[in-house]
Write a structure and sequence with these properties.
By secondary structure, this protein is α/β, with parallel strands linked by helices. Among the domains are: 111 residues, 3-Layer(aba) Sandwich (Glutaredoxin); 59 residues, no CATH class. The chain has eight helices and five strands. The radius of gyration is 43 Å and the shape is elongated. This is Thioredoxin domain-containing protein. It is found in: Endoplasmic reticulum membrane.
C-alpha cells in the first residue's frame, strides 16, 4: 500500500473518532442521562435538575472497586427520568476538588436544583438506586450556603487550587527540563512569594489611605485676651515682689525698732 493512501486512511479514521467523541459529549449535555465527565468548563450543568456526582482518582483503590457499581448505576439512570450521573477525575480538574471541598476518595454528591448533599450510604448500585427512588436524600442535611460550590468564596478556593496545580507543574519543569535542584526551585518560589507579598502589601496600604485618609489634629490656640490677662497678672505679681524686696532692704538698714514690722511683713508674704 502506498504512503499517500495510508495517510488518507489515518486521517479518515481520526476524523471518525473525533466525530464519535463529539457525539457522546452532545448526548451527555442534552439530558440523555449518560455519565458526564465534569471539568472546569461544564460543572455548572449540575446546578439544574437532579444529579449524582462522583469524585475519583485513577490511583485510588477504593475508586477502582466502586467503578463497576457506578457504571451499572449510570446505566440504570439512562432509563430513569429524574437523575443524571456525572464523575470528575481530580487529577484533571483540581479546581473542582477545592470548589467541592473533596477531602476523601471516592466522594459522591447528590445535587437537586443547586442544593448539594453528601451521599454517605452504601456504595453498591442497589443502595444508590434506593436512595433516588425513595427520596432518602430529603433526610440528609444540605451543605450550608457558605460552603456551597457555587458560592463566591468557593470560587476563590477553586482558583487557589488551580494555582497550586500550576505551581506544581512549574516546579517539576524547573527540575526536569532545567536541571535545578529541589532547594533551588524552592528558593525561586520563596523569593517570588516575598516580592509578590511586598507589592500586595504596598497596594493594600495605598487603598486604605485612599478609603480612610489620615486625619491631621490641630493644636488648640488660646484666646489672645486670656493670654494678655494672664501676662498682666503675672507682671503685677512680679512688681509686688520687687516692692517687697525693696522694703525689706530698707527695713534691714533701719534701726532694730523696725524689726517687728519687718517680721510681720515677711509672714504676710509667706502666707500669700
Amino acid at each position: 500500500m502506498s504512503k499517500p493512501l495510508c495517510a488518507i486512511l489515518l486521517v479518515a479514521i481520526g476524523s471518525l473518532c473525533l466525530l464519535a467523541a463529539d457525539a457522546n459529549v452532545v448526548d451527555a449535555g442534552n439530558g440523555d442521562h449518560h455519565s458526564l465527565e465534569l471539568d472546569e468548563n461544564n460543572w455548572t450543568n449540575v446546578l439544574t435538575d437532579e444529579w449524582m456526582v462522583l469524585f475519583y482518582a485513577p490511583w485510588c483503590p477504593a475508586c477502582k472497586s466502586l467503578e463497576p457499581e457506578w457504571r451499572e448505576f449510570a446505566k440504570w439512570s439512562e432509563s430513569h427520568s429524574s437523575v443524571s450521573v456525572a464523575s470528575t477525575d481530580i487529577t484533571i480538574s483540581p479546581g473542582l476538588t477545592g470548589r467541592f471541598i473533596v477531602t476523601t476518595l471516592p466522594t459522591i454528591f447528590h445535587v437537586k436544583n443547586g442544593v448539594f448533599r453528601y451521599y454517605k450510604m452504601g456504595r453498591d448500585k442497589d443502595s444508590m438506586v434506593s436512595f433516588i427512588k425513595e427520596r432518602k436524600w430529603e433526610q440528609i442535611e444540605s451543605i450550608s450556603s457558605w460552603k456551597s460550590p457555587n458560592s463566591i468564596q468557593m470560587s476563590l478556593v477553586a482558583q487557589f487550587f488551580k494555582l497550586s496545580q500550576k505551581v506544581r507543574i512549574l516546579h517539576s519543569t524547573l527540575m526536569a527540563e532545567y536541571g535545578l535542584p529541589t532547594w533551588g526551585s524552592y528558593l525561586i518560589f520563596a523569593i517570588a512569594t516575598i516580592f509578590i507579598g511586598a507589592i500586595l502589601g504596598l497596594v493594600l496600604v495605598c487603598i486604605i489611605d485612599l478609603v480612610y485618609p489620615p486625619s491631621h489634629h490641630k493644636m488648640p490656640v488660646k484666646d489672645g485676651k486670656d493670654e494678655n490677662s494672664d501676662s498682666g497678672q503675672e507682671s503685677d505679681d512680679d512688681d509686688e515682689l520687687v516692692k517687697d524686696e525693696l522694703l525689706d532692704d530698707q527695713a534691714s538698714d533701719e534701726p532694730t525698732e523696725n524689726e517687728p514690722l519687718l517680721r510681720n511683713r515677711r509672714k504676710i508674704r509667706k502666707t500669700d
